[in-house]
Amino acid sequence: MLKxxxxxxxxxxPLIHNMTNYVTVNDVANVLLACGGAPIMAQEIKEVEDIQTxxxxxxxxxxxxxxxxxxxxxxxxxxxxGHPVVLDPVGVGASRERSETVERLMKEIHFTVIRGNISxxxxxxxxxxxxxxxxxxxxDAVNAGNIESVIGLAKKLAAAHxxxxxxxxxxxxxxxxxxxxxxxxxxPIMSSxxxxxxxxxxxxxxxxxxxxxxxxxxxxxxxxxxxxAGELAEAVTLSRSEGNASFRTHLIDEIYxxxxxxxxxxxxxxxx
Length: 272
Fold this sequence. Notes:
The protein is of the alpha/beta class. It has 11 helices and 9 strands. The chain has one domain: UDP-N-acetylmuramoyl-L-alanine:D-glutamate ligase, CATH 3.40.1190.
């Protein structure tokens, strides 16, 4: 199934409309091209509905606030057209404005996948504010002692909003209301660059757009693909005594080079 999910992106070349932040927009566009999709970046309120009509999916990222009305128009149009919509609730819980923005988006738009770190997902599910800016709080980290409760939280939130929840960090959890994929791909160096999460949300949008009948599996495949690419990119970076800026380039390169068989070999997961 992982191989099929990746190959469907390569052959389908889904065009993804990204309403993302100005910090990572270039990396988001490039990683979509690398994984086999295609990017379009549009946020002007007068055009977002038209743009969505020519795209296959939508990725909404609230890293830079100020596009809420345009996001709602684009999201509603995507829902009307039956296009998948991914939400990246960057920093939700860090400020009242971010929390209220996510609350409104979730009332107005049906999201196919919600991807965030554990603190962001807890902020949505439990109205907490443990997020450290855009980063997860160390106290929230998923570990052997709390993983069952985190899986339960993810499944409950997925059921409540008819969505797939992707919690990413050292251990990733991708869950719908019935099953959860526990994924251990990735390396700590991925947190040393700005945008690995933003890139992943866009890759998830491409995967679920290309695999509409297997949304949970497609989201999990996307998480594994970027995580495994991170492992390969770290090996290249270390072998050349390079730093985090080079790692970012190698990460995108490894996503570009990955095929379905490589993903099947490198994926590390279990299903509960």
